[in-house]
Amino acid sequence: MTPMRRPLIAAATLTLALVSATSSYAADVDKAIEYRQDALGVIGWQIGPLGDMAQGKIDYDAEEFARRAENLAAAAPLPWEGFIESSLRGDGHGIDTAALADIADDWADFESRQQALIEETATLAELAQGDDVTAMRRQVAAVADTCKGCHDNYKAE
Amino acid sequence: MTPMRRPLIAAATLTLALVSATSSYAADVDKAIEYRQDALGVIGWQIGPLGDMAQGKIDYDAEEFARRAENLAAAAPLPWEGFIESSLRGDGHGIDTAALADIADDWADFESRQQALIEETATLAELAQGDDVTAMRRQVAAVADTCKGCHDNYKAE
């Protein structure tokens, strides 16, 4: 039995422990939300120029394209651990977030969308090592579609 | 000669172009600052449990340690492109940031510190594939030292 699991004798001690546990949990939720927003921000930053190159808004630069595609694939698995219990809109977390409680209601779908992003970005990073620019462009669109699909379903306006 | 470099004839057009260029540049600076803070936030999140495991505050979990070490190594090269011109404290960017203008004054040192973090985290990710927990712990300390060194020199209190 760990010290944390010993029955607490004094009611005052119990109350204090509960208050302390609650505020620490709230802090964890806030940190998790901030973390996932950070990680999604990194993804947004990295995909920006890839989208611009794919759409011809800026010139294609093979080196930059490959570097950003690699960064994007590295960042794709990161945000999801931040979607913890009580950190969703309408889920009683008490702070502002665009992430809807539908995520918790359909976690299997949310996870399959995470996996799709991880796979599509890995494919993009692989293509970026070659020279088939048409395929790269198409793959940027595939990645953007996975972003959009998740936002459409799980992100508040 | 690109269109952007053609002399502008009408003064009104010139003024408009300057205003437009300035506000878009300010937006770029704000976005770059936000991006680097996002990327550094990801690094902080990933290193947290590694530090806790290294210091025995939480139990060592080989799988989690290896996953976070890999995430950390993947994130280590990311923040630095956000340290753009006019985005430092005392550098006329006009928004709040803890990044000191000393970064621009000693860019070579700042770059060598970035490189140190990239290398130390790569070493940690490699060690995390093995089973020498003492070496892993020591390497977490080495990584934390590179963070601290940069913060001590280039981050406002």
From TrEMBL, chains A, B:
Signal peptide: 1-26
Keyword Thylakoid listed: no
Keywords on record: Electron transport, Heme, Iron, Metal-binding, Signal, Transport
Keyword Transport applies: yes
Gene3D superfamilies (UniProt xref): Cytochrome c/b562
PROSITE patterns the record matches: CYTCII (PS51009)
Domain of life: Bacteria
Protein name: Cytochrome c
Species assigned in the record: Halomonas pelophila
